[in-house]
Amino acid sequence: MKKQFKYILLSAALILSSAVQAGLHTPGYVNINGSYMMGTMNFKHNPNIGAGAYMRVVENNSIIEVSGTDGVVFNPDGTMSGGAFFACNVTQSFSPQLYADTMEIMGALKLGTVFYIRSSGIAAPEGEVAECNRVAIISSSKVGE
Amino acid sequence: MKKQLLAPMMAVALFGSSATIASQAYSEPGTVDIYSSGGDFAMQADFSVRHNTDPEAAESYVDLTYVPNEYIYVRGRNGIGMMGSNFWCWMYPDNPAWEDAKKVVLNFTNGHTVAVKTVGLGWDCRSLELDFESSRIGTLQ
User: Fold this and answer.
1) Within a domain: A3
2) Does any domain span residue A74?
3) Which of A15, A24, A41, A42 to mutate to test the interface with B (most CBs of B within 10 A)?
4) Domain limits at B69?
5) What tens digit of pLDDT does each residue of B27-58 get?
6) Helix ranges restricted to H, B26-108
């Protein structure tokens, strides 16, 4: 009787794991490539993402501050890679349209959405951090949880 | 004493199994359908397609990209490998449906179905609509 129960549990576990693996689930990521940062809001669920990786978008006194890093990866050969940092601001007085668009996109960010932000490399007159100049969002079924 | 314990345990077990049956009864696998409609290309896609465990749906997906003031890009796929078809179309801010389409992209999430049509057989999006919101889809199968 106990053996039967064990087999039922085992087969249930197998069914569950195959259900999770089926469909189109992809791991979350954060990519930083010089002038842009792009990542999925679920990257924290990816155990293989670099240590300390994050994306941050916050409105503060009419300035949207965007920052992030792709995290440090400790390679099997003892070397480290990654650790790129990204930051840019959207200043309302400098780019009112982009500010409004970014605020709207911020409100739509949820688990699994892809967030993209690009920096102009040029700071607003009153700031030191470069201004962002392009923002995008992707609502994608391809991301997992 | 043991019998007294057994009864509540049985009740809990029965309740648990009936809850499982109920959730299965109201689950539907997400799908992506690509077809022609009145001379247009069309796609109807569930965000929850990634939960579809059918091997033939393994590469099915839908993506909605919104770049403010530039474009909305819709793409999707149904099926796996050679059995699958691809769909994509672009919408620009001068399209009268732009504002509605933007809202669809910003709100699209699990449980939603999106319906999109092209202008003729080209790759300009004619419309992008949130078809319905249903509690019946989006549950892991």
Assistant:
1) no
2) yes
3) A24
4) 28-133
5) 678 899 999 988 999 999 998 888 888 888 88
6) 98-107
In angstroms, rounded to a whole number, what is the distance separating the alpha carbons of residues A111 and B135?
18
Number of domains in chain A: 1
Measured between beta carbons, the chain A residues lying within 8 angstroms of B48 are 141
| Alpha-carbon span A49 to A72, nearest angstrom | 8
pLDDT over 70 (residue B7): no
| Partners of residue B88 in chain A, C-beta under 8 Å | none
Query: How many Å lie between the alpha carbon of B6 and the closest alpha carbon of chain A?
Result: 17
Please report the pLDDT score of residue B30 as a whole number. 86
B49 with A23: CB under 8 angstroms?
yes
In terms of Cα–Cα distance, which of B112, B107, B118 is closest to B131? Answer: B112
Domain annotation covers residue B7: no
* A1 within some domain: no
Length of chain B in residues, anyone? Answer: 141
Kindly provide the ipTM of the predicted complex, given to two decimals.
0.79
Tally of domains within chain B: 1
CA pair distance A106, A104, nearest whole angstrom: 5
- What is the pTM assigned to this prediction? 0.80
Using a CB–CB cutoff of 8 Å, tell me whether B91 touches chain A.
Answer: no
